[in-house]
Design a protein that fits this description.
Blueprint lengths: L7 H19 L6 H7 L4 H7 L3 H24 L6 H13 L7 H5 L4 H29 L7 H11 L12 H24 L1
Length: 196
Amino acid sequence: MPRTVKDPEERRRELLACAMRLFAEEGYDNVSVRAVARAAHVAPGLAYHYFDSKERLFAAAIEDYARRCAEGVCAVLDEPDTPLDERIDRALETGARHGGYPYAEFFHKEGHGALHDRLSLAMCEAVRPHLRRALEADAAERGVAAPDADELAAIMVYGCIGLASGPGMPDERALAAARRYLRALLTAFRSDESLN
């Protein structure tokens, strides 16, 4: 059978997608780098070239999955002609829709709290720079500096982790509370900017 040569980044993404699927279907303990290679139809040596251990493969798979899950939120935050308040509301709604995450059931399964937390933190890290840039752009439009934009982005993003955590979340009450507090933070940030 002839060997298929692919772009290294494309091959890496394929291995990560295959690994995430296997981890979600079979559980961490039942998956090896060799099993991922077999499922991806590549030689084990090639898989080990990209990931020298199951732990690194799993960490990279979660990071990649988190980035893909965060794409919708990031796209909303990156919209240039939409007011920031509206983008934040829509980003919150987008992030709260679990149906858009193919392995949501796996991460919300009982006993997978640590995995869920790891995914949540990785999603926050994926979203944070987009929110920081949106805050900086909003400040620039008003002709002020935004020296604390990164700190505020962290507070806002990490403060929303609880919306995706636990059974029955998010609920409308929690989303309404998050909107209120995010608006209050944004108002405080804008007021503080005017003092500088």
